[in-house]
Design goal:
single chain; mainly alpha; Outer membrane efflux proteins (OEP); two-stranded antiparallel sheet; elongated
Length: about 375
Amino acid sequence: MATRQIVAGRQQSVRAANNDTLLSVAESYFTVQQARGELVGIIDSINHDEELLRRVEKLAPGLVPPLEVTRTRTDLARRRQLRYVAENRWRAASADLIRVLNLDPLVLVEPLEPPEVRVSLFDDHQSIDDLMAIAIATRPELAAQRAFVQASYERIRQERMRPVVPNVLVRGFSAPVSGTLGAGYFGGGINNNMGNFGGRMDFDVQAIWQLQNLGFGTQAVIREREAGNRAAAVELARVRNAVAAEVVQSVALLPTSASRTQETEIELRESRESVDQNLAGLMQTRRAGELNILVVRPQEVVAAVAAMSQAYTDYFAAVSDYNRAQFRLYRALGQPAGPLLQETASINQRRPAAEPIPTPQPN
């Protein structure tokens, strides 16, 4: 019985390792998506900077001083450098995902899903009590440790019963004892008659009770088993507390990550509109006395493009953190079965940004 509990505990440990591996794969995958999204934002910013430079160069020298042209070119050069950095970040994240998946290290991962995809497994306002009960029931680490506790208890019972339960020894012709004959060909009869011959086989059965060191050794072994049982129970309590902490931490991330994603979505939409409006205003002039001046100066467009680039970074970081929070809770609950997910989740629910985002292509 103790061995069966050990086997069951090891099987649950395998499940725990699978859960950890799934979380590692998911987090690495969303890191790839975040890197692709940041590259998307930089590519979009470069396109707007190039459009800005074309428009600035077309304006009359009296409207735009050479300093503005230089500033625009400098910002464009800087964003082109950032594109190389973003591509390297994508390749590094891809290599890490390939390492976790044990695939060809030369492969560059380019997911079919767009970088802004969101995976919703749980509602943002799940009851912590309900989730805690699910985690206690389904988390494989707890099931494994409970099996080890039961195995240690069976070991105690074994040692307590050892002095009163004998070991049964059965010996036959294959295990002869010195001075005896277990098998052979025997003969004999009444008085001097030796004509009655035939085969014969004998078995010996013995019951042996074991008491180590007059009972003191047996008591010492029992105390050792009891100490192992207490250690296993303490470890079970530690694992239970760790699981509870992971559930609480994962649940706390859900509403904040969801709110953050909504805020960054607004930030990205507004920043893109700001860039478009600033570019449109760049070609408009107004009178100031006898001078014509631009309604929007190039440096204001440069600032709007920088704000949009930061909005892209914030948005894709928020989306990736949202997805990570979902899978961390999924792992913290021990990957509960389908009914929970069917009630609380919509897997691979896509929520694109305000406008279509260009797909990045590596050089």
